[in-house]
Amino acid sequence: MTAYLTSLRAIVLREALRFIHQRERFVAALVRPLVWLLVFAAGFRAALGLSIIPPYQTYITYETYIVPGLCGMILLFNGMQSSLSLVYDREMGSMKLLLTSPLPRWWLLFCKLLGSTTISILQVYAFLAIAAAFDIKMPVWGYLTVLPALIVAGLMLGALGLLLSSFIKQLENFAGVMNFVIFPMFFLSSALYPLWKMAESSELLHDICAFNPFTHAVELIRFALYVEVNGAALAWTVLAATVFAAAALVGYDPARTRIGRRG
Amino acid sequence: MNGLEAQDLSYFYGTKRALDNVSFSVPTGTFCALLGPNGGGKSTLFNLLTRLFVAPDGQITIAGHDLRKSPRAALAQLGIVFQQTTLDLDLTVQQNLSYFAALHGLSGRAAQCRIESALDQLDMRERAGEKARALNGGHRRRTEIARALLHDPSVLLLDEPTVGLDAATRASITDYAHGLAEDGKTILWATHLTDEVQPNDDLIILHQARILETGKAQDIAGDMSLQDRFLALTGTVA
Fold first, then answer.
1. Structural domain total, chain A
2. What average pLDDT score do residues B183-209 get?
3. What is the DSSP pairing of strand B65-66 with strand B59-62?
4. pLDDT, tens only, A101-146
5. What is the ipTM of this complex?
6. CB atoms A17 and B91 under 8 Å
7. For the structural domain made of B1-77+153-238, what CATH number should be given?
8. For chain B, what are the domain ranges?
9. Does the residue A197 lie in any domain?
């Protein structure tokens, strides 16, 4: 096995072990979307009328509509969680260990990204299984075809987390990420309501939602769950992932960063 | 000279000068103490030597490899013990070392042989299965040193590795590092404690971003104790 694959395996395994040791994180990651699905959606089912829009072939319940958005929510929160753990790693010293390894920095950061995305996807599948147990089911093949969409969306949101971690100086600043990144990204998207509904309220908000990469990640997942490809959403998500990853690489460039400054 | 060389290193945080034209060399198989008060520039220098920062000017050579031109070859020859712990406290000593070995491309039997050998050297073999969280401060430091030696580097950097340890453990770890130099490794040991420096050690005194003295510790101390000499040079409490 080459040094690249050896390091990839070790970094992904470490992320997995770290996740296993934080069971409460797993529970929290599942409880959050399940509360939205089983409580919020039940309450709003009556209030929100949904027309038939692609990829749906018929009228659907609101619970069915928000499942892709909640999959996106898991990926989004995990992306930010991994950003938090990167800042923590930096304060503790283990980030220094990673960055002083004799492998290209882009590769090491990619391994980190892949590790956190893998953990996120496992949580999404756990969520989909619980949703299915409550009779909120997707087409059978959709559970398979959604995997590449989850990978692309997970990498995009993980890259955003990586980018944020290169700019967040201290753990204490992380609350700002919640207020200024997670909530706007989630609410200004098609996760909870279709964009045409948003357009009825405000064209400006609709345009912001349409620009938000998270909207496209959700739509990519939504179509993939119904064994369809949304080309525009795919292109937009891949583009956002590329931009975030490139900016994160600049953020972690040793000639520009202050990664080792603390200590 | 294949040990460690730094030439004309300067570094600024904004307008604040952290290092001012620092140059030194540590020959192969030498224990060199980098002595300086807190805030003197030691950590910045370590960040440059480990490529966590890149200095705009100057040159760093590690075991003959230019850190700017061939960073991977240079880092492969470098073992680093950071001030902070790098261990994942929820993992065992063995798991932590396996992770680090993998970061250097070592896996399987080759990695296991290195891990066992490093743990043997540090008398830590019987603790391989313990979680890092269960180790005391001294054992954690030993694990860190074992980790830094896993890939058999020719140059070892230790950034205040005895912080927070009792006197006996400090002495034991300091003696061990001196032994490594006798075995041919190049050691740069940053500290602000003069009692960790032996008379025959090479010594660099770094203060307010500049090198004040370089040479053999006993020559720099002259007819004073090193502690008094250091105080006289820096005007600070060591």
1. 1
2. 92
3. antiparallel
4. 899 888 988 998 999 999 999 999 999 999 999 888 899 999 999 9
5. 0.82
6. yes
7. 3.40.50.300
8. 1-77+153-238, 87-152
9. yes
